[in-house]
Each structure stands twice: as structure tokens, then as C-alpha cells.
Write a structure and sequence with these properties.
- The chain has one domain: Alpha/Beta hydrolase fold, catalytic domain (Rossmann fold), CATH 3.40.50.1820.
- About 40% of the residues are buried.
- Helix 5 links the parallel strand 5 and strand 6.
- Helices cover about 30% and strands about 15% of the residues.
- The protein starts with a strand and ends in a 9-residue tail after the last helix.
- It is built from 6 helices and 6 strands.
- By secondary structure, the protein is of the alpha/beta class.
- Helix 3 packs across helix 4.
Length: about 180
Amino acid sequence: MPTVLITADLSPADWPHWLADQLRQAGREVRQLTVGTAPDLAGLLEVLADLPADGYDLLAHGPGCLLWLQHAHAVGSDAGGAGPRPARVALIAPPSPRQPEPGYSEFYPVPLDIDAVRHAAEGTVLVGSDNDPACPAGVATEYGAPLKMATTVLPGAGRLTDADGFGPWPAVLDWCNRDNLAFRA
């Protein structure tokens, strides 16, 4: 199953680069999109072009989550040209929807539309930390409750980057290698 990774500009030591390498070594197709300072829905559609509907996984980290939520909202309001729908989505360490992350103000306001998120993918899961400085109220409070979505909270995991111990991250590779939506920490 192909995998799409949407991230901000991360270090090569961070888990998305490690994950892409692991999946490619296993013969899997990986497509990556680096998020700039403004939502690039056209760029996302280009990355998703020609993927099979309900036949790929999408993982978004940090501001990449905001791009996916913008996409889900756009799909919910106008399904034309929306691109194929992923089987599973993992939104990992999304920044607070209430206080813009420096450099990403164009992504706000963040649409927290339950129906749009449910329509945009076969299933979506949230993964975050209880001490993420970009989401101080916590992923479960900021996203899980308003979106009525399954949330995996990793204690003390910060932004889920290499600096927080998430360079190689076996749990995310395990998620990619299973068909189940649940994220096992």
C-alpha cells in the first residue's frame, strides 16, 4: 500500500525520513510533501494524483496536519477535484488550532469539521503528546474531543521529533505495516 507523508521542514534525523527509508527498503511506494508557510492544496492534490481510492495511508506531522484538515474541509464543501481518498490517516503532533504556530498563520483558522474529516478518509487517528509546546492544551483536548476521534497520547513525547527521541520510531512503522486504524504506542 502506498504511503504519503506530509511534514514541515524536518531534520533528516526525524522519524518521517526514517520511516520513508524503511518503507522504501521494503519495496513500498512513498510520496512526500513538505509544507511551506501557506496551505498548498494544489500541491497536495498533485502528490495524491493517481493513487488508488481507499488504497493508501497518509501520515501528517505538525503543520502537515493543518494542511490535511484544510483539505478535508475543502473536500467536505466541494468534492469535485478532491483526489483519491486514503484508507487511513494519522495526524501526528498537530499544533494548537487556537494559537497559530510561528510561521504558519496562513493555516488558520483550522477547520475542525467532524463530518468533513470522516468523509475525507476511511479512518483517521490522532497521535500526540501531553507536553507538546505547540499544542499546550493537548491533542486529546484540542482535536480528539472536538472531532470525536480516537487519540493516542504519548506521555512526555514533546513534538515527536528526533530531539524528543523520535528519530527511528518503530510504532509508526508498525502502524504502516498493519491494516488496523488503532495506533499502538
